[in-house]
Design brief:
This protein is mainly alpha-helical and 193 residues long. It is 89% helix and 0% strand.
């Protein structure tokens, strides 16, 4: 009986030690499970963020291609108007260099041709100004969420804004040329009388 009691005490102590160790390991296992679950949540969140970022990059790439096409169209229109303005300016310079004399008269067809050219250039400038304003407004609206000064879209937008300012200057020069044509027409009429 005394041996049994000592043996029972040892078994009881051993069981308490095992139970205590098991409890510690269960606590440690639960902590490891919690940490793994947190890491898994972080990985899932990062995966979702990467997919969103990838979609944004694809959208921005498509937007950049579209913006580049619009920029190229605006640049082509700008070149057309520059050519028209150059022709008109050459004609105006030629007319300015010709000294007016009593014998010189402008033919109606020549005067009408100059008027048509001036009107054509003015119309093209106004259309280009409207198209460019619309394009730049559309680009600005599509880039409102972005506030990056060095991204390609912002650089293209700034370039288009500068292009718009140049075209507005060209339009003002076209108006000046139209005024000069009107002035010469007035001089011709006065001279013809």
């Amino acid at each position: 009986p005394a041996n049994n009691s000592v043996l029972m005490g040892k078994v009881k102590d051993e069981l308490e030690n095992l139970e205590s160790e098991l409890s510690a390991r269960i606590t440690e296992f639960r902590e490891q499970c919690r940490m793994i679950e947190e890491e898994d949540d972080r990985l899932m969140t990062n995966s979702i963020r990467l997919k969103v970022l990838q979609c944004d990059v694809e959208r921005l790439s498509a937007q950049q291609v579209d913006t580049q096409k619009k920029f190229e169209m605006a640049e082509a229109r700008h070149n057309e108007i520059n050519q028209d303005l150059s022709l008109l300016n050459d004609e105006l310079n030629r007319l300015s260099s010709v000294k007016s004399s009593a014998n010189q008269t402008w033919s109606d067809s020549r005067r009408d041709e100059m008027y048509r050219t001036a009107i054509l250039v003015g119309d093209k400038l106004r259309r280009l100004d409207k198209d460019l304003n619309d394009t730049i407004s559309q680009i600005n609206r599509s880039n409102e969420a972005l506030d990056h000064g060095s991204d390609p879209i912002s650089m293209i937008t700034r370039t288009l804004n500068m292009q718009l300012q140049s075209l507005k200057w060209i339009e003002s020069q076209g108006h000046r040329i139209e005024e000069r044509v009107n002035y010469f027409e007035g001089c011709r009429k006065a001279h013809d009388q």
